[in-house]
Design brief:
Layout (H helix, E strand, L loop, with lengths): L6 H7 L16 H12 L3 E4 L3 H9 L1 H6 L5 E4 L9
């Protein structure tokens, strides 16, 4: 993975912040960074709304989807189901 200058800032923020919103231009490595963080630096369950099953579960019942998340969790492509906000 290409080193991202923002990585230390994200890890620092995760020490005392329950929610981090990572946004930016398309195809700049946000999803790759999120997956890497979940595997290597910040153990979390990774979800993406690009996955049809995950998308449908969140779309049908956003409140239940959030309530049933294992903590911590990383949710990618969250713009696809704005109801989870």
């Amino acid at each position: 993975m290409i080193y991202r200058n923002i990585t230390p800032k994200i890890l620092e923020a995760l020490q005392d912040t329950p929610v981090i919103f990572l946004n930016g231009a398309r195809q700049t490595g946000k999803s790759t960074l999120a997956q890497w963080l979940a595997k290597e630096k910040y153990p979390a369950k990774y979800f993406t709304f690009d996955d049809v099953t995950t998308f449908v579960a969140a779309k049908e019942s956003p409140v239940d989807f959030i309530k049933n998340l294992q903590t911590p969790a990383i949710i990618d492509e969250v713009q696809r189901v704005p109801e989870v906000f």
